Amino acid sequence: MSSDDAYSSFLDQANQDTGASKTSANSSSATTKAVDTGVPAPLQNVELYYTSEADEPFEPVSLKWSGNNMPSENEFKDLVGHGSDVTTLSPKEFDPHGQYKAVLEAVESSGDGKSRIFRVDHGKTRAEYYIVGHDQEGKRIVGLKAKAVES
């Protein structure tokens, strides 16, 4: 009987919440703001993945923006609420093999026909890629983003 009680006690301890999920949720993960207004229909059903060590799906982006042009790197950093480095990439730098053409087309059809690619650094090996366009009529920046792990 005591061995059953000891085993039961062991299982109770093993199943207790260790708080590990809370710690990881509060750590600096690769997450920035992506949606604070309605998402255009062409961006809602994009089922493509960005190929990196993590193979993450592209997610919609729709952020309020009252500017007349695309944001600068510093403005974009403020827009997504991130204090790390933000750089701009050309489409060729982002997609040298042409495998994300559908992503660029979806973004360009949702905005003013142009796109800009921002890379938001999250440390040395993690980043988010934002492929965005300017929807001046809707006063927003729209597009897709994907997380990447690059070691």
Spell out the blueprint of helices and strands.
Elements: H1 2-14, H2 20-26, H3 41-44, E1 49-50, E2 56-57, E3 59-64, H4 73-80, E4 86-89, H5 91-94, H6 101-110, E5 116-121, E6 126-135, E7 140-149
Antiparallel strand pairs: 1-2, 3-7, 4-5, 5-6, 6-7
Description:
The protein is of the alpha+beta class. It is built from six helices and seven strands. The model is unreliable at 20-28 (pLDDT under 50).
CA-atom Rg in angstroms: 20 Å
The portion of residues forming beta strands comes to: 25-35%
Q: Mean of the pLDDT scores?
A: 85
Strand elements, count: 7
Tell me the distance between the termini: 53 Å
Tell me about the largest β-sheet. Answer: 5 strands, antiparallel
Structural class: alpha+beta
Poorly predicted runs of 5 or more residues: 20-28
What order do the helices and strands follow?
HHHEEEHEHHEEE
Strands in their spatial order, largest beta sheet = 3-7-6-5-4
Q: Count the DSSP helices.
A: 6
Shape: elongated
Oligomer: single chain
Which percent range fits the helix content? Answer: 25-40%
What's the quick description here?
With 151 residues, this protein is α+β, with helices and mostly antiparallel strands. 30% of the residues lie in helices and 26% in strands.
Supply the key terms.
alpha+beta; 26% strand; 151 residues; 5-stranded antiparallel sheet; two-stranded antiparallel ribbon
